[in-house]
Amino acid sequence: MDNITLPTIHSNGTSRKSLQEDYDAAATTLEDFIDRWGYVEFNARDYYVVEGAWSKALEERETMNRKIRDIRVYLQTIREHLHS
User: Hey, is 17 helix, strand or coil?
Assistant: First the structure.
């Protein structure tokens, strides 16, 4: 991911504690989703009846996996900042 804009902790902003709790909760939820995502059946047998559907599904799935990884990096980066 490119540069991520990090929140600045200051007297008129959201407290560090609140941001930490919120980003930690979001990260935990994402990890739970990733675990569940890994159990979703994804097989060619569910696509082969339509010509080209499997290769298209593979491409779409990888696009989704990249987005999930990007969200994970985004959350990790902000959490590291907030906890440092």
Answer: helix
